[in-house]
């Protein structure tokens, strides 16, 4: 891997985007779909609510009969029956009549509003109403929530808890979600012998699992071309991630295997940390190679792998939150590299201070736990001076 | 349920806080702990890295031997062996000597820095170094990442992917996590008959599952005291949530059951939506009663149930993100009530517009899907005028 062959992140994404994966989907219950990506646009088959219904416990009546109502001069109504959400009878209500009604019940014919219990009093067959009621007051109108044809869920959208409510309300009990699976293994004699602990692989696996993908770990593999090839062949998932084994040093046998049975799309990126990040195909399956150092692996996962997966499968990425603050310590950038600096914020509002937790050291895990944001420094920048106002991306897991 | 007995949210939390639950924990693998709450403080048993190690592929040498190195006047070193992360041999390196070293390998005795491959060239047994190298350059110092005794994970903290990396690096493969389980059922003949679809229960279940709790759904129960009592007795989980059946109307039989075999801590809250939210104990088990309308149930779940669970079990709540913007439409508040208004933001920076998606209608699911924030209006406020700058809480699932 030659530094001069390294490419910029934007170019890497452009080059990587061209892949068109075949995708699988599966039909699951709406509840089981939470945390996964929809494989289809789901639209409401009908209006919701399906009818005008009461938004309160109270009395359904004609609003025009209450125009002059007041505490001292209540309107008087004749009570006629009771309506529950489970009622199916058709009640006809005339002028001067009211019907006791429970939240969620269908508004009876002839009425247009509901007066709350607190604003009325019942005595025998008589109802007194102490306030004027507006037309449609305390009434949820048919279709006011979700209109027939409204897109409840978009293709590629992450299913969240409120979708569960909306889909079920519309009578939709199952949805098609994308099945995207990732097989992950690590290379390195030092991992096999235990001199270095295999922490990056479970970390990256947890990261992608939390993002809604199925992940399978294939353990650690020695620095041996034959074994690496075997490991690549063993992965049954849609994508492969290999951690470790991409440094410019001589122990990096994975590239040789890739070059024999596949091809590289890019080898090495002008990003920091994560410069050894590479991507190619092996037996037509996408293979990402990331550093064995956890922070470098994370930066590559977030900015390269997740980004390309979202492009390929047309997943809608979460909107990122940003915060601005004053940089507490100058940061130097290597021209031509995009740096991802972990920062910790202190204070709030205009007094927010942005403190780089560690400028170098991609293995520094502590900085990940401590950090609450990422400051991205552009390729064209030589760095940012202490005291400058910067915009940071809020770190979310 | 009388409006005048309704209490404010802060008072409700104070009253509810007094409960001291017994808690269970279970020992799980670090990977399985992600998304759950730690039952213990976990501290690093040793320094990490455990030794000074190379942060790069390159050559270990004495920095003082490179002081005057330059492109035209390189320092010359005699090469002596190679070190891999899996090496365990003890190499002694003298003045003028260098050792080829791979990322992650232990720095050999006698050296204090590593020069990158790019800044040197190897020819036979000779190494040329073209730049001066600082002491400890490209070296990860022992303990620089995590010091012995550093608290990696705090009791009550949500386990996130980077904890996986940190714990495994420190050789910790299992942690104790809290087991907190919630049993949920719904009441209402209209749900049993299917006139109204049971969407709130699966929604709230998905909400609490995503927050790291085990949830079990017990389906729907008719408006019948005996059946409601049976349902309460059937729940084996630590906490009970009942959706529906808490309106001030006459079909609300759950309160009668609670009053017979338990007690209420509060009945009705001065919040909007969610004013029917109630809390008590049944057979000494906490029971939350929330509206059957999804938005009201959500506001209660987030601001009452989750808040009390966090207090009881001493869970560390996620830090909330806030955003400011200009209110696009006036909102009226009922004095004495705290309102939770769903809003949608448009634009960014100083031009951010905050648009209430729906001011009333707690059943309005669409507003949940569309909204990206919540604007909280205080009890003492009569409302907020269009054009005022407001701070909203970013909605996260």
Fold and architecture overview:
The structure is a homodimer of 397-residue chains. Chain A folds into 4 domains: 3-23 and 180-313, MoaB/Mog-like domain (Molybdenum Cofactor Biosythetic Enzyme, Chain A); 27-48 and 156-177, no CATH class; 53-140, Molybdopterin biosynthesis moea protein, domain 3 (Molybdopterin biosynthesis moeA protein, domain 3, Beta Complex), CATH 2.170.190.11; 322-394, MoeA, C-terminal, domain IV (Beta-clip, Beta Barrel). Chain A has 8 helices and 26 strands. Chain A has helices at 9-16, 161-169, 189-193, 200-210, 225-234, 254-261, 294-313, 366-370, and strands at residues 24-29, 42-43, 53-54, 58-61, 75-83, 97-101, 113-116, 120-123, 126-129, 139-140, 151-153, 174-179, 181-187, 214-221, 239-243, 262-267, 271-272, 278-282, 285-290, 322-327, 331-332, 338-346, 353-358, 373-377, 383-384, 389-394. In chain A, a hairpin with a 2-residue loop joins strand 8 (120-123) and strand 9 (126-129). In chain A, helix 1 packs across helix 7 and helix 4 runs parallel beside helix 7. The interface between A and B is large, with 79 and 79 residues.
Largest interface: A-B, 79 and 79 residues
**Rough shape of chain A?**
elongated
Specify the structural class of chain A: alpha+beta
Named at the architecture level, the CATH assignment of the largest domain in chain A is: 3-Layer(aba) Sandwich
**Could you tell me the number of beta strands of chain A?**
26
The strands making up the biggest β-sheet of chain A line up spatially as 7-4-6-5-9-8
Mean pLDDT of chain A: 91
Write the CATH fold name of the largest domain in chain A.
Answer: Molybdenum Cofactor Biosythetic Enzyme, Chain A
What is the CATH level 1 assignment of the largest domain in chain A? Alpha Beta
Strand content of chain A: 25-35%
Tell me which oligomeric state these chains represent: homodimer
Number of domains of chain A: 4
CATH superfamily of the largest domain in chain A: MoaB/Mog-like domain
User: How far do the termini of chain A sit from each other?
Assistant: 31 Å
The radius of gyration computed from the alpha-carbon positions of chain A, rounded to a whole number of angstroms, is: 31 Å
Q: Uncertain runs of chain A with pLDDT below 50, 5 residues or more?
A: none
Number of helices of chain A: 8
Largest sheet of chain A: 6 strands, mixed
Q: Which percent bin holds the helix content of chain A?
A: 10-25%
